N-ethylmaleimide reductase (Actinomadura namibiensis), 362 residues
Amino acid sequence: MTTLFTPARLGSLTLPNRLVMAPMTRNRATADGVPTPLMAEYYAQRATAGLIIAEATTPDRVGQTYPDIPAIFNAAQTEGWRRVTGAVSAAGGRAFLQLQHGGRIGHPDNSGLVPVAPSPVAFPDAIHTPNGPRPAPVPREMTADDIGATVAAFAAAARNAITAGFAGVEVHAANGYLLHQFLSTHTNRRTDAYGGPVENRIRFVLEVVDAVVDAVGPDRVGIRIAPGVTANAMRETDVEDVYPALARELAARNPAYLHVVFADPESPLFHGLRRLWPTALIANPALPWPTPFPADGGRAEAERLLAAGADLVSLGRAFLANPDLVDRLRRNAPLNGNRPEHWYGGTAEGYTDYPELAPVPA
């Protein structure tokens, strides 16, 4: 019987368990996007996860979303991530790095540049900046040259991630960021080869994935999708058309995994994706947000997803507050409570100071 603690294969990796630490923005990098020693400590504390997917990291300057977000487009950033992967490896862990371009989710106060997007459709809410919340600007519609440069930036970032010691990268095509924006007719109003019919709207995602696979190999690439998820004011009206078509094309590239956000084990779409997908399927459960949060940290939902066909399950907030989450779940021990006031930015408080269980006596 497969459980959360059964070893698994993912690409060329053997994972000691099926619990994945989901990528979660923590805003602890420097203003220049360089990961800090504190980040290395944070990830090393959580190295007992079967796999860590490190937080959203921008592949180029214009893709920056918020202040103090890590990046991986220059040598200093790459070296900062090398310190993180070294700490994780020394603690016995394995990590992929999520590559995320914000698209319209950005602001000149953060990146120094006007954001770019499929179409000039502004994000309707405020963007967090060093100067406080600011209205989101109307993004500049990407030209063909912009699209080509962005695809190349993802490939270069993937190469940098492998140089930095990551086992692979996750292409973020979810949660309302740039690649997701291309998939939706709400944010993609183009009339060229990247807009209109489904086969056009999925084109940019496929071009990014192709470039990343060419750069680092398919067994080092995962893709994250969020069918119908409304994060960052996303709207999708043809989920049942877009995501099977996207999954079929992605599956032909044979990447290491598909990571489905807010997966519903009773959804026909989830089961359809499972049938289409030839390699590992990571499912992220739809848990209450922000509160109440289940006392079991999402274990019951994780087990339901495994039973429904997921190979691995990603958990977020449970890993934030419990660096030893795998051990706690294995021992059916109580979980630490989260401190949401420390989720985004700050010091070690609410980041690396959560207590761990005492070891089991020999």
